[in-house]
Amino acid sequence: MAQLEKIVIVGGGAAGMEIATKLGHKVGRKNKAHVTLIDMAEAHVWKPLLHEVATGALDEGIDAVSYRGHAKAHGYHFQQGALQDVDRDNRQVILAPISDEKGNELLPSRRIDYDYLVIAIGSVANDFNIPGVLEHCVFLDTTEQAMDIRKILLNKFMRYASHQQLEDRIKVAIVGAGATGVEMSAEMHNAVNSLRGFGYKISTDLLDVTLVEADDRILPKVEKEQISASVAKQLNAIGVDVRTGTRIVEVDETGLTTADGERIDADMVVWSTGVKAPDFLKDIGGLESNHINQLVVKGTCQTTRDERVFSIGDCTALQQPDGSWVPPRGQAARQEALMVADNIISMLKGGTADKEYIYKDLGSLVNMSKFHTVGNLMSFLGGGVLVEGKIARFVYTSLYRRHLIEIHGFWRGTLMMFMKGINRIVRPHLKLH
Ligand SMILES: Cc1cc2nc3c(=O)[nH]c(=O)nc-3n(C[C@H](O)[C@H](O)[C@H](O)COP(=O)(O)OP(=O)(O)OC[C@H]3O[C@@H](n4cnc5c(N)ncnc54)[C@H](O)[C@@H]3O)c2cc1C
């Protein structure tokens, strides 16, 4: 019997989970190909929810999807491990050894064969080589980092609540006022409000959040300035100190230094400026990469030097016919994933990868916790439609709803959203451990 062709997907995020599920259903379950998903984590958490994990508004233990369980139910296989290199001559991915918390090796480095490889390992915050960022900032790239932020915040609140530190305020600086920075600022205020309900004797007056942006407006990537203005107004109203046109040149243990020499004191600095692909992708397998380590691909999402190696999502550099680059967005990751699944299926049948990806901007929404939601829908229709309030909030949550439906199926996905709604009523509003 002829051996099944092997499709290996590395990275089970917004892009990787979608393609693994689609290929699992279309070819894995029908025994037409062997599909394997590899991720360094054990469970999938949808990245746009990480700021809620960081403030405790979301319990990752409930929302995380176990890769192993999902793989079994959806016709693909799962291997845990971190991609280290690609050996294109032998068509193998090389995974780093896995150790336990004490450093004891659990699994040695492994090689996994592929006939088609999809790299979907996402992005990390770009430190732009600014001194002190890596040493003194916290990041929001992984679930573990989000949980670390929660721990730091809770420890500080605990000290306040026990009156040990009443002379000080808690100073948090968030650098980068894109959607992540803005949503995080609002979510922190909401978390402090909610903590009062748990008996913590604190108020938002004790929290100083400074949101720093080098551009002259917040949300600089959002086309409509009207949206930036509306969000800035809301942030000011809840007490966030918004500083635009402020470039950070150094970070140390007590805060930030701006290009004008001004000091911004901070007990914690969240770094959420632009993204780059992980550094090790720069030279992986001799594939072409750009200045921020993304793998350069053709319209089909095949890498420029190897048509059996695809790249999708944030780690990908894909230039559009109009010269622009596909942005690192959840919607692009998802659309690319679904298209690449079709291209691989066509290649499995002896055809070619004939679908080319054109980014269709469905719009951007910014959710400031319970305070406000605003954004632009259907931006591809010449400017789009401005939405605010409940409608915007509904569309914002529908992005996650669609993700759940695509990876779990209609009934299960809908049921999960329903249970999430019930959990909001019956469970504590914050995760305090
Ligand atoms: C707080 C926040 C809010 C956001 N809000 C929005 C939004 O509202 N709308 C929107 O469109 N986008 C939003 N984004 C951006 C969106 O999350 C990303 O564009 C999207 O997740 C990219 O998908 P991806 O699959 O490329 O990467 P990810 O979803 O980051 O997945 C990458 C996966 O690869 C795994 N991985 C990483 N390195 C390795 C390795 N070496 N080996 C094996 N596995 C590895 C990771 O564990 C992860 O599972 C937001 C991002 C953040 C942080």
Topology:
Layout: E1 6-10, H1 14-28, E2 34-39, E3 43-44, H2 50-55, H3 60-63, E4 65-66, H4 67-74, E5 77-80, E6 83-87, E7 92-95, E8 98-99, E9 105-107, E10 110-113, E11 116-119, E12 124-125, H5 133-136, E13 137-138, H6 143-161, E14 170-175, H7 179-196, E15 207-212, H8 225-237, E16 241-243, E17 248-252, E18 255-258, E19 263-265, E20 268-271, E21 275-276, E22 295-297, E23 302-303, E24 306-311, E25 316-318, H9 330-348, E26 363-368, E27 372-377, E28 385-388, H10 389-408, H11 410-426
Parallel strand pairs: 1-2, 1-11, 2-5, 11-24, 13-20, 14-15, 14-20, 15-16, 22-25
Antiparallel strand pairs: 3-4, 6-7, 7-10, 8-9, 12-21, 17-18, 18-19, 23-24, 26-27, 27-28
Helix pairs in contact: 1-9, 1-10, 10-11
The chain binds flavin-adenine dinucleotide.
Flavin-adenine dinucleotide (FAD) is lined by residues 10-16, 38-41, 47-48, 50-51, 82-83, 120-122, 140, 179-180, 278, 313-314, 328-331, 333.
